[in-house]
Design goal:
TIM Barrel, 8-stranded parallel beta barrel, binds phosphoenolpyruvate
């Protein structure tokens, strides 16, 4: 078996769950457990309203903080939006291009690209989500879709800017459905389409250094099978990140 080339990472996407009180309670459960798993980078992505409280709780810990979205403009008359600078005051990471944003909020590949560029300019590390729908998968278009999402999503980025990226391969049909991809299948998509595409327009070296996570119905009982794949560097976890025990077990599986 080959050697793992990148530090494993497990990120929890809490989506639109958890009030400030609920977020605080969850972090208090997670903190002592995650602190002991030093070989894995843990990232928590609470809703915007809980970022500040979670930031304070994890300040002295090894846990990292991420947001779930941002707007690309720096400031102005954009009621209800949150700027990259506002996010960067609190968080290090930001999820961009999640399939729920693409499906419900009009985040096209061009919008995703603007957000990625704005996030990097503000000093944030984007977690760029890509993945095909069931229909795209069944019509054999996975490669085409994922390559487009990568090439447009990362358009105009310098090689230097790409070094801070993280990618999450999240087949849409696997998100929140309980039907995860096969670990071998996900690894192959990452290798054939994600890493190759990055190598093509950046470099082999950058493609090899970017962590690529798998997301889609990762649970404690299937996590290890994904992490055993050499090109899967961890997981972006939705549902199972809302339960401390499940998230800790998944993180332990990555250690
Ligand atoms: C997600 O929202 O990114 C996700 C992967 O969700 P779930 O783990 O619930 O499938």
């Amino acid at each position: 078996m080959g050697e793992r080339k990148r530090i494993p990472c497990v990120a929890g996407n809490w989506k639109m769950h958890n009030t400030v009180a609920e977020s605080t309670a969850l972090v208090k459960e997670l903190l002592p457990e995650l602190e002991g798993i030093s070989s894995v980078k843990s990232i928590l992505c609470p809703p915007f309203t809980a970022l500040n409280s979670v930031a304070k709780l994890i300040r002295e810990s090894t846990i990292h903080l991420g947001a779930q979205n941002l707007y690309w403009e720096g400031q102005g008359a954009f009621t209800g939006e949150i700027s990259p600078q506002m996010v960067a005051e609190l968080a290090e990471y930001v999820i961009i291009g999640h399939s729920e944003r693409r499906a419900y909020f009009g985040d096209t590949d061009d919008v995703v690209n603007k957000k990625v560029q704005a996030a990097i300019s503000a000093g944030l590390q984007p977690i760029l989500c890509v993945g095909e729908t069931l229909e795209e998968n069944e019509s054999g278009r996975t490669g085409e879709v994922v390559k487009r999402q990568i090439s447009v999503g990362l358009m105009d980025l310098s090689k230097e800017q790409m070094r801070g990226l993280m990618i999450a391969y999240e087949p849409v049909w696997a998100i929140g459905t309980g039907k995860a991809a096969t670990p071998e299948g996900a690894n192959q998509v990452i290798l054939d389409f994600i890493r190759k595409e990055i190598a093509h327009f950046a470099s082999e070296e950058i493609s090899e250094m970017i962590p690529v996570l798998y997301g889609g119905s990762v649970k404690p009982d299937n996590a290890k099978d994904f992490f055993d794949q050499l090109d899967i560097d961890g997981a972006l976890v939705g549902g199972a990140s809302l339960k401390a025990e499940a998230f800790v077990q998944i993180t332990k599986a990555a250690a």
